[in-house]
Amino acid sequence: MDEDVLAAMKRWPDVPSVCGWLSLDPRGNWRLHPQGDAAAGGLGEPITNPRILDFFARNYAFEEDGRWYVQNGPQRVYVRIDVAPLVLRTGDDSITLFAHTGQPVGRVDSWWLDDTGRLLASTDLGPGVVIDRDLSKVLDGLQDEKGEAAARPLADGETPAQLKYEPLPQSLAPFHEVSSEELPARLGFVAVP
């Protein structure tokens, strides 16, 4: 977090948090809900100012209970999560994974395929959804323990397939199927704080 944000938190420790003003869409776009009605599911207004977007990226964090927020000075602004708290993209090399905040993914602990065809990952940064435009590139990089193309994910009750994303120097991670309604509980985040 920014030094001035940390200083403001120390200076004013009891500023109440707010909900309903921010959301994060499936493509990693921040949206403002000027009426404070993000929980109602509305689209909101796009936030496009580069300085604000950079500020959000540097000051986006989560609490242990799975609520994600932007620390805006001394105030926490909780975020409605439309799919996952992070949106994962490939870098200029078309294979390195980055969160929408610009942070590189260093590890994937599990892969998830939901019932709408979205690919998600539990990463060292938190849970993220692979942005639709990079989905085929990431799927092409998934390999099983023999180095072959990814197998289908297995449902609950079956032993999950183990996959590795070739660009990451890590061990294999389980590959699961999940319904989109179960995503928050299974990946450990609060969609609507």
From TrEMBL:
It holds the Pfam family DUF2944. This is DUF2946 family protein.
